[in-house]
Structure formats: structure tokens, C-alpha cells
Design brief:
single chain, about 325 residues, alpha/beta, four-stranded parallel β-sheet, 15 helices, globular
């Protein structure tokens, strides 16, 4: 990738960050955090924060943190009247699917996802016509309408197990082409792929990992399977965000680089103080649309409710529940 393109992308992300993460004085941040925690008690609310949220949200106001599927599961175990999802829109939809009788809010409805936007329900129907009889396995990082057209969902942590659970020689795995390529290398099942990808994980390249190894001999590289295959080939470990955390808990490396969205690393520094983490640069502009101010507004006004048409919700829920029957796994 040329230096010119890299600089253009960096400037774009910096501009986006200035829009979605305006600077606040420390006193203002503390006031917002206090207000959110008070509103949670008043409204009987639970706040779910994905691993890619900024530390002020992840550490200071979230009741449950983790990957997207774990957030939805844990919400179902609570007795909250309101569920506030600090993540992107498909995550809020998944929370609603598994908690249909609760009020689910997303602080900014424009918190989308380039991967989720890469496929539609119509695309899935067309794939079925092109490959009649093949089961469709859909990554949870998709809209409810896409899940509704699928046979079963998967996460990045259990994708191989889900594919193999179907007992067939060939499946369609959508929408992430990099995840599908990685799964194809881990199983004998033939994988039919879609062309989707995550704009954050596509920013990594193998040269970055080789440069890290030169700077940090002995450092462990853990890459998310949404990264291109050439990046995964350079990594020591491939895993979902939940898988990354499990590895750190079990192995306690002295030095590590997490090849995924930047806030993941920021959020784990305090949890694993004995590990020296490499600072990574890519941030997800959609995740960063969620701010403390918007969380306050969501709680005060009960605004931006997540609603899914009943017919779509019923079919999408079946795809998610069928995945849960296969076993637990980490998602994005």
C-alpha cells in the first residue's frame, strides 16, 4: 500500500474521530459518568459495551463487557427494563433478538458496520438460487434480515464448529471473505464465499507484523480472523476478541500485539498489567459514534429503540438459537 493512500486513510480516520469523539474536559467526563450511573439506577437499565468501545465507556459505565454475542446473552440474564447497547447496530439487533420483551436502545442509530452493510437479504436469496441445496451459514455481524434468510449463524470463534456441525461437504459462509478463507483452511468442508470485509481489519498488512517482530523479539502476535490471510499467516495466534482474552489469561505473554481495532488494546492494558502491548492505530469510526453524551440522552429520553419486524425476528432468532445449540464461541 502506498504512503499516499495510508496518509489519506489516516487523515480520514482522524477527521472522523474529531466528529465522534469530541474532546471533553476531565470534569465534564466525570459529570457525564456520574449522570449515567445515576440514570441506570433510576431507569433500571443495564449498559452493554463491546470490546471496541473507548475506556471511558468500557471501564466506567458498562455493566457488561465483551464480544457482541456475549453481551446479548448476559443481557438476557439481567432483570433490567432497559438494555443500552454501546456497540454497532447489528449488535443491538442481536440483543433484541435474544431479549424480545425488553426495551433495547442504541445511543446512535448511525453506528453501523461496513461488513454488515456488504450484504442484503436479497443477496442471500440470490446465493440460494445460485447454489441450490447448500446451507447458508451467516456471521453474526449482519443485519437481522440477513440472519432471517440463513440456516444458522456463527461467530468468529465458533465458525469452524458450526460449519462442521452441518455434516455436509459444502456450505455458503457469508459475508466476510477473510473469515471464510480462514475457516476454509481449518476444515475439509468446501466454503462458498461472499465479498464482504471489515474496513478496520483490512488496514493491517504483513509488513506491520514483521516490523513488530524486529522491534520486539519474542512478542506474541494475535490476529482477528477478519484480517486478510497474509496477515493471519504472520500471526502466532488467530482468534476472536473473546479468544484473544482467553489466550492472554492462559499464557500471560510478556509482550503482545493485538491485530484488531485499537480500543481492544487500550481496554486490556489495565486488565493485564504485566503484558506490554503494542499500540495499534486503526479505529472503528462506527463504534466511536457511541459517546458518553449520547448514552445520557438515550437513558433520559428512552430514544433510538431497536425494533425488528416480528416475521423477520422469528426467523432470525431461529438462526441464532441454532448456533447456540452447537456451543459457545466468541464473536467480533
Amino acid at each position: 500500500m502506498s504512503t499516499h493512500i495510508i496518509e489519506e486513510r489516516k487523515e480520514h480516520r482522524e477527521q472522523q474521530a474529531r466528529v465522534t469523539m469530541p474532546d471533553l474536559e476531565p470534569e465534564a467526563v466525570e459529570m457525564l459518568i456520574m449522570r449515567i450511573n445515576a440514570l441506570k439506577r433510576q431507569r433500571n437499565a443495564v449498559i452493554l459495551a463491546h470490546n471496541y468501545q473507548v475506556p471511558e465507556i468500557f471501564d466506567r459505565v458498562a455493566d457488561v463487557t465483551g464480544d457482541s454475542l456475549e453481551l446479548a446473552r448476559r443481557a438476557a440474564d439481567s432483570h433490567a427494563d432497559l438494555i443500552v447497547v454501546c456497540g454497532v447496530h447489528f449488535m443491538a439487533e442481536t440483543a433484541k433478538l435474544l431479549n424480545p420483551d425488553r426495551t433495547v436502545l442504541i445511543p446512535d442509530p448511525e453506528a453501523g458496520c461496513s461488513l454488515a452493510d456488504s450484504i442484503t437479504a436479497g443477496d442471500v436469496r440470490q446465493l440460494r438460487r445460485r447454489y441450490p441445496g447448500l446451507p447458508v451459514v451467516t456471521y453474526v455481524n449482519t443485519p437481522a434480515e440477513v440472519k432471517a434468510e440463513s440456516d444458522i449463524c456463527c461467530t468468529s470463534g465458533n465458525a469452524v464448529a458450526v460449519v462442521e456441525s452441518l455434516g455436509v461437504d459444502r456450505v455458503i459462509l457469508i459475508p466476510d471473505r477473510h473469515l471464510a478463507e480462514w475457516v476454509a483452511g481449518e476444515t475439509s468442508v468446501e466454503i462458498v464465499r461472499w465479498r464482504g470485509s471489515c474496513e478496520v481489519h483490512e488496514q493491517f498488512d504483513p509488513g506491520q507484523i514483521r516490523a513488530y517482530r524486529q522491534r520486539t523479539p519474542g512478542g506474541v502476535v494475535i490476529a482477528h480472523p477478519e484480517c486478510p490471510r497474509a496477515v493471519l499467516d504472520e500471526a502466532d495466534v488467530v482468534g476472536s476478541t473473546a479468544g484473544m482474552i482467553r489466550y492472554l489469561e492462559e499464557h500471560h505473554p510478556a509482550q503482545a500485539a493485538l491485530i484488531t481495532e485499537a480500543s481492544m488494546t487500550d481496554n486490556l492494558r489495565s486488565r493485564f498489567p504485566r503484558t506490554a502491548f503494542e499500540t495499534v492505530e486503526p479505529v472503528c469510526p462506527y463504534m466511536k459514534r457511541i459517546t458518553l453524551t449520547k448514552i445520557v440522552q438515550a437513558l433520559e429520553k428512552t430514544q433510538f429503540r431497536v425494533e425488528i419486524p416480528a416475521e423477520i425476528a422469528a426467523r432470525a432468532r431461529r438462526s441464532v438459537e441454532r448456533m447456540l445449540e452447537v456451543g459457545r464461541g466468541g464473536s467480533k
